[in-house]
Design brief:
Helix content is 31%, strand content 14%. It is an alpha+beta fold. Strands 3, 4, 7, 8, 9 and 10 form a six-stranded mixed β-sheet that branches. Strands 1-2 form a two-stranded antiparallel ribbon. A two-stranded antiparallel ribbon has the order 5-6. Helix 10 runs antiparallel to helix 11.
Length: 335
């Protein structure tokens, strides 16, 4: 039995402890009824009650798409990666001291966390220290929409463009400003050997889109003789695009950033993800996703963390004990 199936089986008995009686009922997902889904009209309960209203408002105001969302809210699937990410990070969005403590535990050299300024909707918005589904202030990577390079204002966060699941910003003791862009994985898994260099409509994504960024002198990815095509296999294709976005944000000094790095979070228990090297060429580099990507990226620009190691850290510095108990019960038992 794979990790995804094990995780579904683990979570179903927990529904009665984590959700309302109505949400406990089976839900419909992609046309089929499953016990590992919340009842459809209770999908918003996939977000912890202490963050639910604020998170829904945050996504709505920024026109951010929920993955497989229902009624303007999140998916009802208990293994939803996006809901998992929001549950982990959203409580720290208005808790700078707690966020500072978490980042230091992860190994970041933080003197002071800073507001994610470009995420504010109005000049007088309350400072927020964590952003979600960030795509950069501009279309740095010249990504396409309907067969042409999209205008900056045409892009939508979380949909059709390279998006960072979460991001935060801080000042270091050396007075440099660093942005950490984050990617979150949960039960994802990808097929071996499935090259996605060419899109469904025939676009050569290497030559027509990403080649200029990959060969840029300040690109954070160092292929060391490997062909560029080796990167066009998920999840490495996603990592490539996110790292290229980090490179571009650093190049353009977005929000005053001197350094922009990528933080990748995934469960160690999901060996179908962490230990499956889908790109044949990259099997020469290593046998684990984080290990391989660390070897391909310039020093100081990538960090991989396992969810199992992150749970106790966020619970230790959590903004509230009820949220910590919920997180420990829902996510600490991955196996």
């Amino acid at each position: 039995m794979g990790f995804r199936e094990r995780e579904k089986n683990r979570l179903v008995p927990l529904k009665e402890y984590l959700f309302s009686g109505d949400a406990f009922e089976a839900g419909t997902y992609k046309g089929k009824r499953y016990d590992f889904c919340l009842r459809n009209d209770c999908a918003s309960e996939n977000l912890h009650v202490h963050i639910r209203e604020d998170a829904l408002r945050y996504f709505e105001r920024r026109n951010i798409r929920w993955h497989d969302g229902i009624g303007g809210g999140p998916s009802n699937h208990l293994c939803c990666s996006q809901s998992c990410c929001v549950n982990f990070w959203f409580p720290f969005g208005c808790a700078p001291e707690a966020l500072t403590a978490v980042l230091r535990e992860l190994g970041f050299d933080v003197a002071e966390v800073l507001p994610f300024e470009a995420d504010a909707m109005q000049p007088d918005d309350e400072d927020r220290f964590v952003a979600f589904e960030w795509i950069g202030k501009r279309n740095y990577l010249k990504e396409h929409i309907r067969g042409r390079v999209a205008e900056d204002a045409e892009r939508k966060r979380g949909q059709n463009f390279t998006s960072l699941d979460f991001a935060f910003r801080f000042r270091r003791p050396d007075d440099l400003i660093q942005i950490v862009a984050g990617e979150w994985k949960y039960t994802e898994r990808y097929a071996n050997g499935q090259c996605i260099r060419h899109s469904r409509n025939g676009t050569d994504r290497l030559k027509q889109v990403y080649a200029p960024a990959l060969v840029a002198q300040d690109c954070q990815i160092a292929l060391n003789g490997l062909p560029c095509e080796a990167l066009f296999f998920d999840p490495f294709d996603q990592l490539m695009r996110q790292q290229l976005l980090c490179s571009a944000m650093e190049r353009h000094g977005e929000m005053g950033a001197d350094v922009v790095s990528l933080l990748h979070v995934a469960p160690a228990a999901n060996r179908e993800f962490t230990r499956r090297v889908t790109s044949p060429e990259l099997r020469r580099v290593g046998s684990e996703v984080h290990e391989i990507w660390r070897r391909l990226v310039k020093p100081g620009r990538f960090m991989g963390v396992y969810v199992e190691d992150l749970v106790p850290v966020v619970c230790r510095y959590c903004p509230g004990p009820e949220w910590a108990a919920y997180m420990a019960r829902r996510y600490a038992g991955m196996e």
